[in-house]
Amino acid sequence: MKYFFYSLLVLLFSCSQDNKTIKLKGSDTEVNLAVQLAESFHGINDDVFVSISGGGSGLGIASLLNGTADLANSSRSINDKEIELFQKSGIPIDSFIFGQDAIAFVVAEDLLIDSISITELSGILSGEFSNWSSLSLKNLPINIYGRQSNSGTHDFVKKKLGIDFSLYAKEMNGNAQILEAIKADNSGIGYVGAGYVTHGGSKGIKVLPVYLEKNQQAISPLDAQMIAAGKYFFQRPLFQYYMASSYQKIKPFLDFEKSEAGQKIIQSAGYYPVK
Amino acid sequence: MSIKKREKTDWVLKQLFKATGLVTIGLLGGIFIMLIYNSIAFFANISPIDFFTGAQWDPGSAKGNYSILPLLASTGLVALGSMLIAVPLGIFTAAFLSEFAPSKLQAVLKPIIEMLAAIPSVAIGFLGIVLVGPGIAKIFGIQNGLNALNGSILLAVMALPTIVTISEDAINAVPKSYREASLALGANKWETLFKVTLPAALPGLIAAVMLGLGRALGETMTVLMATGNASAIPRGFLDSVRTITATIAIEMGEVPYRTTHYFALFAIAAVLFLITLSINLLGEFFANRLRKFHA
């Protein structure tokens, strides 16, 4: 009993040191990268802990609002409704861009298509084209594999193309499940973070370079130079949102992300550094 | 111990137990009121006619389509499929266990079947993704196996222990004299089972099915993982579906608080609650009839 009391004290004490733990929540796309960053960061600053969980960009921002996170990873920019909520609760927030991501559109390796235009993509994802024959390919119904609506990637693709997704689009649990489905389905098309293609084994799938208009160059999301030049249509900054009041607490971590070591980790994880 | 003291403890304990009972009822009532209260806020924005008759659930679109129909159809389809699989399987298993199995085998089989209920739903969902889904795709020659059929099979597995356990109790509760009378009149074992024992146990069997159905309707994780979550009205068992439970689980994470979309999630939860509540009440009603019948 006595020991129980002591251990309880230790537990409580560890809770009181909360200001040494940075709680990071949000985007599932960025969660692997955030873990790698946090591990290296902890190697340098071993008195600061970073705890990380996913759940989607929307959840991260909501957690920031109700105070259960210090830093919210988001693969989309904060929307008007959310800004309004922060203003209503009187919490000033700030953002930080720590890297760039590109969304890759993937199809099965044996589908006879080498690149795709924005118009074609809009047609496919909105459900207007339901068969590959619309793109003068063989007669095969199109299966769309997307993310669930709490995903920033889902939101980003939708906004960027200015469409509503087809109601027949399947909503998968994550990037890995989409890649698995595409591997097995020669009529499927899906979208994932480029980092997942380079690091998840690209066997059996093909990344489609995207072009804006006919006769223009199709650009691959795996082309680092083009991304650095901002030429790829589906590239986006990786945001981190935080309450302005907790800036001092998270500053060491943000500094680490900006540092050369941090940017190197970001690059090796399949993302692109900030210009 | 003096009588007075005894009476006092008796009174205190009585109040305590009464209080715990009331807390449970209060919780149920509180949840119900919260669902209804938020649903009213939803129906202030969207007319109930659109809610029940439209054909699209797409809150993220510019127009904001809030129709429960595709979700209801999905939930219904998956639950129906699971019952088509689990009911015959469950009732015949129960009949085998109570009528034909040697008592040693019965002692082994029953706990094993009940153990099915202990498998976490997320594990079953995972099996759906890596095993059942690809299997379905291969058998039916379709591109992807994440569909209503996949969900039905997995939910059948999850509803099975409930159905088997309650059905077996119901069949066991049929008085032995019924069977003896039937056999004495020259009926064989099978005739006795199908024409005497099972009909006599019918209220209990219905109760078993209802409670199993309640389990299937309310399950979230498994269907979220294994059915593909496409929110169009399904045209058959090989279409991807998005159930009410999966919709709530997917969308609650991103929904901005106190918006129409937020209230909409409460409204569909309230509909689901009313459905499972009535099914459970129906199950209880038949279970009680069985008890009275044999008392």
Structural account:
The complex is a heterodimer of chains A (275) and B (295). Chain A has 275 residues and is of the alpha/beta class. Chain A has 2 domains: 132 residues, D-Maltodextrin-Binding Protein, domain 2, CATH 3.40.190; 127 residues, Periplasmic binding protein-like II (D-Maltodextrin-Binding Protein, domain 2, 3-Layer(aba) Sandwich), CATH 3.40.190.10. Chain A contains 11 helices and 11 strands. In chain A, the strands form 2 sheets. In chain A, strands 1, 2, 3, 4, 6, 7, 8, 9 and 11 form a 9-stranded mixed β-sheet that branches. In chain A, strands 5-10 form a two-stranded parallel ribbon. In chain A, 42% of the residues are buried. Chain B is built from 12 helices and 2 strands, in the order ααββαααααααααα. The model of chain B has no long low-confidence stretch (mean pLDDT 91). Chain B is an all-alpha fold. Chain B folds into 2 domains: 42 residues; 244 residues, MetI-like (MetI-like fold), CATH 1.10.3720. Helix content of chain B is 76%, strand content 1%. The longest helix of chain B has 41 residues. At the A-B interface, helix 3, helix 4, strand 7 and helix 7 of A face helix 5 of B.
How would you summarize this macromolecular structure in one to three sentences?
The complex is a heterodimer of chains A (275) and B (295). Chain A has 11 helices and 11 strands.
Task: List the keywords.
heterodimer, A: alpha/beta, D-Maltodextrin-Binding Protein, domain 2, 2 domains, two-stranded parallel sheet, B: 295 residues, mainly alpha, MetI-like fold, 12 helices, 2 strands, 76% helix
User: What is the CATH architecture descriptor of the largest domain in chain A?
Assistant: 3-Layer(aba) Sandwich
N- to C-terminal distance of chain A: 58 Å
How many structural domains of chain B?
2
Backbone CA Rg of chain B: 23 Å
Identify the biggest protein-protein contact and residues per side: A-B, 33 and 29 residues
The portion of residues assigned to helices of chain B is over 70%
If helices are DSSP runs of H or I spanning 4 or more residues, what is the number of helices of chain B? 12
Enter the CATH topology name of the largest domain in chain A.
D-Maltodextrin-Binding Protein, domain 2
Class from helix and strand fractions of chain A: alpha/beta
Average pLDDT reading of chain B: 91
**What is the CATH H-level superfamily of the largest domain in chain A?**
Periplasmic binding protein-like II
Number of DSSP strand runs of chain A: 11
**Gross CATH architecture of the largest domain in chain B:** Orthogonal Bundle
Low-confidence stretches of chain A: 11-17
SS elements, strand count of chain B: 2
Largest sheet of chain B: 2 strands, antiparallel
